[in-house]
Amino acid sequence: MPATPLAQPPATAPRSRSAAPRRLMTAAAAALIVAAATPVTLAYAAPSATVSPTTVAPGGRVALNVEGCGTKVARVTSTAFSEVRLAPGNLEATNLFGSATVFNNAGPGTHRVLFECGGPGGERVTASLQVASGAARGGTGGSVGSMSTAQIAVGGTLAVGALIGGVWVLRRRAAAG
Question: Which pTM was predicted?
């Protein structure tokens, strides 16, 4: 029997590298280019500050708050009050808080409030404070001024009635005991 030639596998081209690693490298390079082109300001937003209330009479108090400083201390200055140092409520705080008393002789009108993150020379943000004409209300804070004479009489009668009832109960206990 004649010898048959051994079957030869079909001729194939040399194996090329898979396209998947090339695509992966291209995607990684594109992501790196996009990340390098993205502005850093997106990661760190500018600080924002608030003064509350925004309108106050001379002698009144205002709450001061700044968010986004990236520091644990801030300084606040204004022509309406003395310099104030803000600090966080705890170590993880992103907001810095404080309060100030408006000068008794502060002129009416708008006063600029300057917040400096980290102290003098730090990143700055401003807010406005409106000082109203007149003085801050003191004393009872207006709790009695709005009451009528009839309301005061009824309240006084109830207080006297409670006092008399209490004395009567105590005397009965003392007599029974």
Answer: 0.53
